[in-house]
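Subject: sequence -> structure tokens, single chain

Hey, anyone have a minute? Need the predicted structure for the following. Not urgent.
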Amino acid sequence: MTHERYRPGGVNPALVTPFTRDDRIDEEALRNLLRFVRPHVDGVVPCGTTGEFVNMSHAERRQVLEVCIDEVSDEMPVIAGTGAASTREAIQLARHAEQAGAAACLVVAPYFLHPSDKGIYQHFYEVARAVDLPIILYNIPQTVDAYISRQVLEDLSEIENIVGLKDSSGDLPYTMEVLEMTQGRLDVLVGHDEVVLPTLAGGCRGMILASAQVFPEIWQDLFRKVQQGDLKAARKLQLKVQKLARIFVRHGGGVAVKAALNMMGVKVGRPRRPLKPVGGAMIHETRAEIQLELEKLGKIQPQEMSWAMPEGPLAHRFTDIGITVEMIESNGILLGSATEGEDPETVGIDLIVGPKGGPVGEAYARQLTHPSHGYEALTTIAEPNLTVKPSTLIVPTVELVNLRQASMVYGPTQAAVAKAILDNIEEKIIPPDTLDDKLMIAKATIHPRALDRHQLYAKVRAAMDSAIRMAFEA
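Reply:
Had a minute. Here:
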């Protein structure tokens, strides 16, 4: 076979596959996605890992590829994902890609049943012989559970139409060894969003990334900066998107990238079962992190969230739970307050301490028996089925409008309040004779955008500690 060498490079998004509500390929949404990325990319890659190819039939993969070729092939190369566990299927898909007009094939290493190195070489060799299309090998040990060995790559690089390698390992020593061993016979493209800058600086010619359909213009800017030798500016760009890139890598493009695109108004539907958009591969905190990072990048408008740290005299801050200033003054009630942290891990604790038989006891019971929607109180526990003493109730002051916010209060906040109480009992700041006859209510103000559970725990613990000391040492 004769073959004009194709050199893959630049910025290429690993496209998600949009599905309709009745689980068919959504051609209209796919075309919309292609139009969205087209001004900013050098090629597109359908039916890869991010495209959920393993959950698609051959007919569906052919359909997606043909839509992509029809929509953008006059402007840029379409690199067809034609990987399969069996050589026979990989050849069938590659032949269709060639007939349909793809620029190249992306062929993943055999998966599930793992052949020897000789079998891996033979797999790629037979696919390459079956078509005259350029072949880009695909190394993704996270899902295949094996690397394409350096020795196999070195041998495969001698085959005329095997022109590149997409390396999604994120393993920099592996990438650098491949670059050194193949000496330019393979054009290496980074497929791991977290290490784009170091791999480009090391000699990779471009990228195939899930995130390149969310912020392709940033990767293009970074790519140009590396080519110009401006590594300082490129480093700033990598760090700017690093958190979102990490989320996409950790939680899978088919789930996290679809969530991001849907938030941005580029509707691509849900991932296919057994993947779940929330509660499976991705928890509510992760969705919130994606939203906040997209806001920082200017991809979506910030969500308005009204909240404020309580102000005014401390004795006036408990009227909403039925405790007046007069009650505080006439019943020997103790008060404490403290704030800690910076946005979005800003926290405030307003603490009230009083006898079980007085207004604090009545407020305690009322909060448990008549909870206010969005402000539900919870008892403080040190561990399952073990409440702390003095018995302490945590009352959120900011409405909990989603499960992410609730998990921040009914998780690190609760644990931190409990630990601060136990620490102060051990130090005898809380007198031993108060443990059974007094109650505490901690009104907790937690920033509605709080995301870092470790920081939130530390700030709540510090604020509760200060509030306890203020109350009992006054």
